[in-house]
Structures are given as structure tokens and as C-alpha cells.
Specification:
The protein is α/β, with parallel strands linked by helices and about 375 residues long. The protein has two domains: about 30-145 and about 290-365, Rossmann fold (3-Layer(aba) Sandwich); about 150-280 and about 370-380, Response regulator (Rossmann fold, 3-Layer(aba) Sandwich), CATH 3.40.50.2300. It has helices at about 1-25, 40-60, 80-95, 105-120, 145-160, 175-185, 210-215, 230-240, 260-265, 290-305, 315-330, 335-345, and strands spanning about 30-35, 70-75, 100, 125, 140, 165-170, 195-200, 220-225, 250, 270-275, 350, 355, 370-375, 380. Strands 2-1-3-4-5 form a five-stranded parallel beta sheet, sandwiched between helices. Helix 8 packs parallel to helix 9 and helix 11 (about 315-330) crosses helix 12 (about 335-345).
Length: about 375
């Protein structure tokens, strides 16, 4: 009887172990998604959310990753950095996510960094500011080009067109603030002198006085408005048009969206800005390594949502693509191994460019992957 009882108990124990292993194998991989789907930059965060959901659905429909489904744990920070910080804490301490994607704009992205670094959770940001990854932070990566790259690409274009005296209007927060810093530090090396340097606050509703000062600056040849996303770029551009400033206008890639064109109308006609090649998909050559990814992105987004994808959706689409690729190569959800796999991303064709990261580069995109575009007849068109 004792032998039989021992056999029964042993069998039960084995059954429990097999059941536990089975359950463990079926546990989903939990990815935290923290974006600004409402608030002042909700028009950016909403398509970013949709892009990630679309990508995850496709992956799950194809069987998941490592034999497990992906579960998105999503929150909206309402475009508020303080809320972003508290929700990142929830993702880490309560939801126990394996990886985090988020930070729609630089301020919300920066608010999350101390938490993910302390908790040692891989974090792929979709914010644009250089300080997100410079200096390099062990657990933090990003997908959109940096303000330094954007500034350098604009200065390159100015140099090629012979503009040496430039007026600068910059927003005093987030991407505008860091962008101004990059322009001021890089201008001289491109033979450009900033002869008027004006600023405005993110809540300002009129920048006519600042633009008037720039317009009156002696010898000025072009104007750069360096700003983040939201409604302020449209406001500044409409002020620029009302002042009838007959000078070439440059803007950063943060303005590249249908929303910006809708808000500015004819006021933005002729404005130039750098942005990734996927923004104008019909201009991508068939032989380009990004072509297949770009076509699949736009086709899938339109089929799913019955609308054309916003360029901002590309930042989060790249982030989830990098995360899934890293999980597959890591072969585990062990956070340290996933982090290492992200850092070892090489030659991964995305929407913003072909990503090749390293221990000293947690973005992995060359400046040359930014192409100059111009607003013409209410559309963003590549500059030949």
C-alpha cells in the first residue's frame, strides 16, 4: 500500500510539474505600451498605438514569438510627463512587463528613463530628442532620428543652397529646446551664421513679435522654426505667412503629418524639412531595402483602419519590430538578454531607415537616412 501511495503521489507530482511547465510555456510575453493617445500630441500617439496593435496582431496570428503570444499592456499618459512617470512605474512594478515601448515626445520619454534604468527593463522610446540616448543609457533605445541629425541635415541643405545668414525661432521645451542647442553648436561647421535667435513658449498662441524681429534682421537669407510636435508649429507657420516673410522656411521632421497640412493650408507651401524616406512611399525605389517594409506597413494599416497611416506611426512600428526581432534572437524574455539583443540589432530594415545599433549607438540610424522634403500643393514631396 505504501509503495502504491508513493507511486500515486509521485505521479501526481509529475503531473503538477508538467501542468506548470505547460502553463508557463503558454504565458504571454507582456509588452508595456505607454503613449500619448490623448492630450496635445494625441494626434501623434493615436496612430502610434494603432501601428503597434496592428503589428502585434499579425505576429500573434502567425503563432506569436518563442511559442508564446504577445500581450500588450497599454496606457495613455495624456501628453503629460508626470503621468508618464507614474504609469511607467505601474508597468514595471504592478504589470511586470518584459519590455516597454513609449514616450511619444521627448518630455514624456525622458520622464520614463530613470524608472526603466533603475528597474533594468528594456525600453524603446519613440521620442525624438537626442538626450534620450545621448549619453548612452544601458536600458534605453529609440527609433526616430535625433534633433542633432535633423539639425545637421537642415544645415547641410542650407549650405548646398548657399544660405549663410539664418534666423532661428525655437520652442523653449522638449524637441525645440534641444534642437536649438544642436543648431547653435553645428551651424558654424556648415558655414551658417545665426543672426537672429528668438524663442517662444510651448503654450504661446502668437509669435508675430519674434518673427517680426527675425524678418528685420539685416542680411537674413532663410528662417528655421525648430519646434516639437503639436499645434505650435502650425501657429508659427501661419504667423509667418501673415507677416508675408519672403524668405525660405525650414522646419524639423516633427511637423510631417497630415494634421499639420490641414492646420496650415497654403501657409506651409514651400516649407522644407528633412524626414525619413517612408513618408512619401511612392518615391521609394523598388530596389531599396526598405521598400518591402514600407509597402507592407501602409497596406496593412489602411486595410485595418481604413485610413492612411500617419508618419508618426512609423516610429512605434519600428520599435515593435526591433523588440520582436530581439526577442526572437535572444530566445528568451530574460531582460538582460533581450537588452543585449536589441543592442546587437544589425541591418534591420525599418521605416525610418536600416537599423544597426551598438554599445555606443542606441539609435542605429545614419543622418543620411533623412531625406529633404518640401510642401507643394498641400503635399510633402521629396526634393530631387
Amino acid at each position: 500500500m505504501r509503495a502504491i501511495l508513493r507511486g500515486v503521489l509521485a505521479g501526481a507530482a509529475i503531473a503538477v510539474m508538467f501542468h506548470s511547465a505547460s502553463v508557463g510555456a503558454e504565458d504571454p510575453i507582456r509588452i508595456g505600451l505607454l503613449l500619448s493617445t490623448t492630450g496635445v500630441v494625441g494626434f501623434i500617439g493615436d496612430p502610434e498605438q494603432k501601428a503597434v496593435e496592428l503589428y502585434v496582431k499579425r505576429v500573434n496570428d502567425e503563432g506569436g514569438v518563442l511559442g508564446r503570444k504577445i500581450e500588450l499592456v497599454s496606457y495613455d499618459d495624456a501628453s503629460e510627463p508626470a503621468r508618464s512617470s507614474s504609469l511607467a512605474k505601474r508597468l514595471i512594478e504592478t504589470d511586470h512587463v518584459d519590455l516597454i515601448i513609449g514616450g511619444t515626445v521627448t518630455p514624456t520619454a525622458m520622464a520614463m528613463i530613470p524608472l526603466v534604468e533603475r528597474a533594468e527593463v528594456p525600453y524603446i522610446s519613440v521620442g525624438g530628442g537626442l538626450p534620450i540616448v545621448d549619453p548612452v543609457k544601458k536600458w534605453v533605445f529609440k527609433t526616430p532620428h535625433t534633433d542633432r541629425q535633423v539639425a545637421q541635415r537642415i544645415l547641410q541643405d542650407m549650405k548646398s543652397r548657399g544660405y549663410t545668414k539664418v534666423g532661428l525661432l525655437s520652442e523653449t521645451a522638449g524637441f525645440g529646446q534641444s534642437g536649438r542647442k544642436e543648431v547653435m553648436e553645428n551651424a558654424e561647421s556648415y558655414g551658417v551664421t545665426i543672426i537672429a535667435d528668438e524663442k517662444y513658449g510651448p503654450k504661446d498662441t502668437d509669435v508675430t513679435p519674434q518673427l517680426a524681429t527675425i524678418k528685420s534682421a539685416k542680411g537674413i537669407e532663410a528662417v528655421l522654426i525648430f519646434c516639437g510636435a503639436g499645434t505650435s508649429p502650425a501657429m508659427a507657420v501661419k504667423n509667418y505667412a501673415r507677416l508675408d516673410v519672403k524668405l525660405p522656411l525650414y522646419l524639423p521632421h516633427a511637423v510631417v503629418s497630415q494634421e499639420f497640412l490641414n492646420l496650415t493650408g497654403s501657409a506651409s507651401e514651400g516649407a522644407r524639412m528633412p524626414t525619413a524616406i517612408f513618408v512619401v512611399p511612392e518615391g521609394v525605389p523598388v530596389e531599396d531595402p526598405q521598400k518591402r517594409v514600407i509597402d507592407a506597413f501602409y497596406r496593412g494599416y489602411k486595410e485595418a483602419y481604413r485610413e492612411v497611416a500617419s508618419p508618426f506611426a512609423g516610429n512605434s512600428y519600428d520599435a515593435i519590430a526591433i523588440a520582436i526581432d530581439a526577442l526572437r534572437r535572444a530566445g528568451t524574455t530574460d531582460k538582460a538578454k533581450v537588452r543585449q539583443a536589441i543592442e546587437e540589432t544589425r541591418g534591420l530594415a525599418g521605416l525610418n531607415g536600416v537599423f544597426s545599433m551598438s554599445a555606443t549607438d542606441h539609435l542605429g540610424l545614419p543622418t543620411e537616412s533623412l531625406r529633404m522634403h518640401v510642401v507643394k500643393d498641400g503635399k510633402f514631396l521629396p526634393v530631387n
